[in-house]
Amino acid sequence: MNNILIINTHQPYESSPGVLNAALVALMDRILRDKGYEVRCTKVSDGYDAAEEAEKHVWADVIIVQGPVNWMAFPWSFKKYQDEVYNLLSGKLFDGDGRHRSDPSLHYGSGGLGGDRQYMLSLTYNAPRDAFDDEEQYLLQGKGVDDMFLPVHMCFRFMSMEPLDTFVCYDVHKNPDVENDFKRLEAHLDRLFS
């Protein structure tokens, strides 16, 4: 586990230029390089070459997806990135969908070739921590952070990648605690990448 790809999914808007997400990527990049990892970074909103991004995925032992949660998901530009890049990973990180013609109802999604790879989600939320994992909360009704990102987790599982613990900065607009978030991120990375 020496090669790490960090993808910054932030889509800039006038009201949200992406300073926090860029700072989190920079911190991850510095910490991981200091630990001896080779790190490559992609900022989706700067544009990208899909074939080069596919090769970065093949090169990477770990993929970290950093991004804000916009309307309960990553920004639209990351979905476009996934559609364009992941389709080029056939034969590299997955070989079909894992089913066999003898019984096509079985084993859907088991054709992954990336079993020696891992991924991590790092998210910035306007929602407070208390909004999650509590059935009394109005919107999420007991759902957790990873429940909300099931489609992203399934994309990586389709390639047989294993998840690392998700990192979250909560309440970044109304009650930010950026200094503590940076300390927590450093501790998170120390635990996962010792």
List the helices and strands and how they pair.
Layout: E1 3-8, H1 19-34, E2 38-43, H2 50-59, E3 62-68, H3 76-86, E4 118-124, H4 145-148, H5 150-158, E5 162-163, E6 167-169, H6 178-192
Parallel strand pairs: 1-2, 1-3, 3-4, 4-5, 4-6
Helix pairs in contact: 1-6, 2-3
Structure described in brief:
With 194 residues, the chain is of the alpha/beta class. 34% of the residues lie in helices and 16% in strands.
Folded structure, characterized:
34% of the residues lie in helices and 16% in strands. The protein has 194 residues and is of the alpha/beta class. Strands 1, 2, 3, 4, 5 and 6 form a 6-stranded parallel β-sheet that branches. Strand 1, helix 1 and strand 2 form a beta-alpha-beta unit. It is globular.
- Report helical residue fraction: 25-40%
Radius of gyration: 17 Å
Largest sheet: 6 strands, parallel
Strand content: 15-25%
Averaged pLDDT: 94
Which spans of ≥5 residues are poorly predicted at pLDDT below 50? none
State the helix count.
6
Number of strands: 6
What's the N-to-C terminus distance? 11 Å
- Based on helices, strands and strand pairing, what is the structural class? alpha/beta
Task: Spell out the key features of this protein.
single chain; 194 residues; alpha/beta; six-stranded parallel sheet; 6 helices; globular
